[in-house]
Design brief:
Number of helices: 4
Low-confidence stretches: 263-269
Number of strands: 13
Oligomer: single chain
Shape: elongated
Distance between the termini: 126 Å
Structural class: alpha+beta
Order of helices and strands: HHHEEEEEEEHEEEEEE
């Protein structure tokens, strides 16, 4: 017969101790099961350290960006404030004013429209212009480049001329004499129609004078970069000359306006 092995009836010490404790206090096992099986209990979830590191890095980058923006805006405000203070000091010390221009006289020696056999119209004109410019400043000197002068009538160019550059001292008046001419300029149909209509006006031919030049301003040891200016003189009316004598245009209501082509002056030593 085969021998059978039966398990020992003895249990280890741990099982015996647990059985003894359960038998001694039966409510302890019930309370433990209720504590771990309670549905309203919030489970413990440990926070990973990588999330804290990422959040800390993002806050640090945001703080650096805000600080950079703050210091940039503050620097710009300080620069603008210093520029405003410097401009105010310059204005109080020198009180700069734009130069003034006026039309002294305009004589129309010739305005002639001729039509060629190919139905093209040519304009020939000659005008004698006298201008005066004044430097109203007491401490600033104006240094002009060559002046370009154009005479127009309702956007139709009548004649062109120029005047050499010059220096205008403080409180100085400079007289400008220039001969404007146009030699056989071909006009389009619209320009011919407009010019013929203006020549028939009772009040005379309306003439506009445009002056373009560059000017540099000097004061003590400082000087500016050259700035473009345009002078527009309107309110001039002239008649077509009859015979060889030039026709004198009316300049009593002429007014000249000076416009800066560049608004910001940059000063250099």
């Amino acid at each position: 017969m085969t021998d059978r092995v039966y398990p020992s009836a003895k249990t280890n010490g741990t099982a015996t101790a647990a059985t003894t404790a359960t038998a001694a206090n039966p409510n302890a096992a019930t309370m433990k099961n209720q504590m771990y099986n309670n549905p309203s209990r919030i489970p413990y979830r440990p926070t990973p350290t990588s999330y804290h590191r990422h959040n800390r890095r993002r806050c640090s980058c945001r703080r650096c960006f805000c600080m950079c923006c703050f210091w940039t805006i503050l620097s710009i405000c300080i620069i603008l404030l210093l520029a405003a203070i410097a401009g105010a000091i310059f204005y109080v010390l020198y009180h700069p004013q734009r130069p003034t221009f006026s039309v002294s006289s305009l004589k129309i020696s010739n305005i002639n429209l001729t039509t060629s056999p190919d139905d093209t119209t040519h304009l020939t004109a000659k005008l004698n212009l006298t201008l005066s410019t004044k430097n109203p400043n007491k401490k600033l000197i104006y240094n002009y480049n060559t002046i370009s002068i154009t005479a127009l009538s309702n956007q139709v160019v009548l004649a062109n001329g120029s005047f050499p550059g010059f220096t205008s001292s403080p409180s100085n008046i400079t007289i400008i004499h220039s001969t404007l001419s146009m030699m056989s300029q071909v006009l389009d149909a619209d320009s011919v129609s407009s010019l013929k209509s203006d020549l028939k006006r009772k009040g005379g031919l309306p003439v506009t004078i445009l002056i373009d030049t560059m000017v540099m301003v000097k004061m003590d040891k400082l000087k500016s970069k050259r700035v473009g200016i345009r002078v527009t003189c309107e309110g001039i009316h002239g008649q077509t000359p009859k015979g060889k004598a030039p026709a004198v245009a009316s300049t009593n209501n002429a007014k000249c306006k000076v416009d800066l082509r560049i608004k910001i002056l940059k000063w250099t030593f």
